[in-house]
Design brief:
The complex is a heterodimer of chains A (339) and B (388).
Chain A lengths: L2 H26 L2 H26 L7 H26 L6 H30 L4 H20 L10 E2 L7 H19 L5 H8 L1 H6 L4 H27 L1 E2 L6 H14 L4 H22 L6 H8 L1 H15 L8 H8 L6
Helix pairs in contact in A: 1-6, 2-6, 2-9, 2-10, 2-11, 3-4, 3-5, 3-9, 4-9, 6-9, 10-11, 11-12, 11-13
Chain B lengths: L1 H28 L6 E8 L6 H20 L7 E8 L6 H13 L3 E3 L4 H14 L3 E3 L14 E3 L4 H15 L4 E7 L3 H16 L3 E8 L7 H9 L4 E3 L4 H13 L6 E3 L6 H7 L7 E4 L8 H14 L5 H20 L4 H9 L4 E3 L2 E5 L5 E2 L2 E7 L2 E8 L5
Parallel strand pairs in B: 1-2, 1-3, 3-4, 4-5, 6-7, 6-8, 8-9, 9-10
Antiparallel strand pairs in B: 10-14, 11-12, 12-13, 14-15
Helix pairs in contact in B: 2-11, 3-4, 5-6, 8-9, 11-12
Classes of the chains: A mainly alpha (339), B alpha/beta (388).
């Protein structure tokens, strides 16, 4: 590990520990900023993990919200039923140690169940390519949502109230860090080069003896695991979940973050996740400023239009995303004439 | 072209950045002057149920405008801060946090749906900010805590009203139920209807379900027809209800359908046409109600928007007007005093009936039953809370 990276790592760790100290003040006095910060963290986990599938491995998954739902509902039901047991061992529900243990345990439950779901969907469907895979994953996401909608145990359409308000900055950003580290180390390892070969040329990869299906399933399961964790964090943050929160559009949100950030660029995807979470909030604030010219204000009141416009402009000017590799996009979408 | 686009991109980026800086400046320095009472409104103005949200906003805006035209409340102007939750789960919580920590509102009105309200309510409760929901019917909402109030009746009451109406007024003994499983409120109503109907001596012959967004209901309707009910209880929203009624008549299922406030839309009449004749539904409000408070509200709304108000507009108008009345009664714009005043509301004459807030912070108020005849909703009768 180089010196610069070591310093960066120590600095990030310091920030994480610092977050424990300011947690209380942030969560009460600055609850709105705190909400936005946590949402950014959750979106970073979602986008970075999806980037492993959509960006690095070159598959097109549209079912990320489905895995998030599995994680959220698994963690919520686990907490609702078994937290008193877990906390009982650690000195009661109010105890901070017990809260943190409960969160970690339920995150693990959520993540592992989502990973299992990823495996079950991945094995049969990842023999497909391109659009076909997109349709299968989309279908899966909808199946999960509809299944929850018809399961009374999970609250069905009424939604599910979640015990506790466990999610904090430390675990959200800690997990985001672990997610980023895992994805980066994977794709930069000897084993992980396999993901990139699957993306760049599946036939050639297969000819070189790479088991492409296995790589695809691996990427899928890891992504699903982190999506499940993000779901658990979400459930314990909002304290109330409904199946509608994990519909197709939620999946599309994450895909947009990946594409905007630049497929296969972790830094870009992190920035895009942050940008796309903050942008609607900034537009919200701007819509209420009184010194704006009326015409401009009219546009901002329809902040969704302004938001979409920004996306269009960004995609027109930088089709490869904020930090994507321009050559990769050109290879795929723009056929260059051989010289 | 590419060069132009890239320049445009930089231009857009510069504008963006400028906007960002402006927003930051506004946030830190731009505190508006003058004595004002801030009320937060959280409402789905866009997205899947944006149409409902927009009508609701008209109602609340009218109430606030009225109050300001009369010189405000306690001599202070009412500043209504409206936030759109985009019909997106998760947003209501963010907005509630913004209201209590950024805008520092005195009270919150909202949300439209129970699930969004259940996100916002714990935050308002923890911050000690009163929240009045005009339309969230899930019983759990007001159980969140003593700062959470509701001014509409809950599903249990409405289910009971329709069951009693079917058993006593229409003298029916055999009913069937068709539930929208995607809507928590439909599931709840079906359960309460079935309970009350069997207690009143009737039998629910058959239960079938569908999901909002479906367009073909022939399978369910055929199954219901086979059970030979005397009426079908259909607690759904109008887009599906209109189609269901048409398809039922095509299949020869000619018994009356009984519904709930989700039926209240002219669209239902357009879609169902003659198929809706002879059906009944319960509602919070009827624009044809002869009560003076209703007539006054309807005329006022028509002057402002040139349109007949629907249930949602009336409920949101009432929520805001009742809240402002409570602030006046509290005598000072402080959350605790306002909460106590809200809890002490007795016989408030609203557009949606006389409202009394009970010990569970729910509204105890009458329901109206409407009949559909010759393509019109006709005010049929009023059912007070004590009678069923």
């Amino acid at each position: 590990m180089s010196r610069a990276r070591l310093i960066l790592g120590v600095f990030l760790l310091f920030l994480l520990v610092l977050s424990l100290a300011v947690e209380g003040v942030l969560a009460t006095t600055f609850a709105y900023y705190y909400d936005v910060l946590i949402t950014i963290g959750i979106n970073v986990i979602l986008a970075v993990s999806l980037n492993l599938v959509n960006g690095y491995t070159g598959q097109f998954s549209l079912g990320h919200a489905g895995f998030m739902a599995v994680g959220a509902y698994a963690a919520a039901s686990w907490s609702n039923h078994l937290d008193p047991v877990v906390a009982g061992v650690l000195g009661g529900m109010g105890n901070p140690a017990a809260t943190n243990v409960c969160l970690v345990v339920s995150m693990l439950v959520g993540g592992l169940l989502a990973a299992l779901a990823g495996l079950l969907v991945g094995i049969p469907s990842l023999r497909l390519r391109g659009d076909y895979l997109a349709i299968v994953t989309l279908g899966f996401g909808e199946i999960i949502r509809t299944a929850i909608l018809n399961t009374d145990f999970l609250g069905a359409a009424r939604g599910l109230s979640v015990r506790g308000n466990y999610t904090n900055l430390f675990w959200t950003y800690g997990l985001a860090g672990i997610c980023v580290y895992t994805v980066l180390s994977l794709v930069n390892s000897t084993y992980g080069r396999g993901f990139l070969t699957v993306r760049d040329d599946e036939v050639a990869a297969e000819a070189m003896g790479i088991n492409t299906t296995r790589y695809k399933v691996a990427a899928f399961v890891i992504a699903a695991f982190f999506a499940g964790i993000a779901g658990a964090l979400y459930a314990h943050f909002k304290a109330f979940i409904t199946p509608e929160g994990f519909n197709f559009f939620r999946s599309v949100d994450v895909v947009v973050m990946v594409i905007l950030g630049g497929m296969g660029s972790t830094l870009g995807v992190i920035l895009a996740a942050a940008l796309l979470t903050i942008l609607p909030e900034i537009l919200r604030a701007l819509a209420h400023t009184s010194f704006m010219p009326p015409a401009f204000q009219g546009l901002l009141e329809n902040r969704l239009i302004a938001y979409s416009l920004l996306l269009i402009v960004l995609m027109l000017t930088r089709p490869e995303g904020l930090f994507g590799d321009p050559s990769a996009v050109r290879r795929r979408f723009i056929r260059t004439r051989p010289k | 072209m590419r060069k132009f686009l890239s320049t445009a991109g930089h231009g857009a980026a510069a504008v963006d950045f400028g906007a960002l800086v402006l927003a930051a400046v506004y946030y830190f320095f731009g505190a508006p002057a003058g004595a004002q009472i801030k009320i937060g409104e959280v409402n789905p103005l866009s997205g899947a149920i944006g149409q409902y949200g927009t009508t609701c906003h008209r109602g609340i805006a009218l109430a606030v405008e009225d109050a300001n035209a009369q010189g405000g409340v306690l001599g202070q102007r009412i500043d209504l801060i409206t936030e759109d939750n985009q019909s997106q789960p998760g947003q209501a919580a963010t907005i509630a946090r913004k209201f209590v920590t950024q805008d520092k509102v005195l009270a919150i009105v909202g949300d439209l749906t129970s699930s969004a309200t259940l996100e916002a309510a714990p935050i308002a409760q923890a911050a000690g900010v009163p929240l009045v929901t005009p339309t969230a019917t899930n019983p759990k909402v007001t159980q969140v805590g003593d700062f959470i109030f509701r001014i509409c009746f809950i599903d249990e009451f409405q289910g009971k009203v329709m069951a009693r109406f079917a058993a006593e007024q229409l003298k029916l003994t055999k009913a069937a139920v068709l539930t929208d499983v995607k809507q928590d409120y439909s599931v709840g109503l079906s359960r309460f209807f079935a309970d009350a109907f069997s207690r009143a001596g009737g039998t629910v012959m058959k239960t079938q379900s569908y999901s909002s967004g479906d367009t073909d209901f022939r399978a369910q309707l055929t199954a219901l027809r086979a059970a030979r009910p005397e009426a079908v209880f259909l607690p759904g929203y109008y887009p599906e209800v209109g189609v269901i009624l048409r398809q039922a008549r095509q299949l020869g299922l000619s018994v009356p359908f009984l519904g709930c406030e989700g039926w209240d839309s002219p669209t239902l009449l357009q879609v169902a046409g003659k198929a809706a004749d002879g059906c009944y539904f319960s509602n919070h409000f009827s624009a044809d109600d002869p009560a003076p408070a209703v007539a006054q509200f309807v005329a006022h709304y028509r002057r402002k928007y040139g349109d007949r108000p629907d249930t949602f507009a009336a409920l949101w108008y009432d929520a805001a007007a009742l809240l402002l009345d409570a602030i006046k009664r509290a005598g000072k714009p402080e959350p605790l005093a306002v909460r106590d005043a809200l809890a002490q509301t007795r016989d408030y004459p609203g557009a949606t009936g006389t409202i009394t807030i009970n010990a569970q912070r729910n509204a105890s108020k009458p329901a109206v039953i409407l009949k559909i005849q010759d393509g019109h909703f006709i005010y049929f009768q009023k059912v007070t809370p004590d009678s069923p």
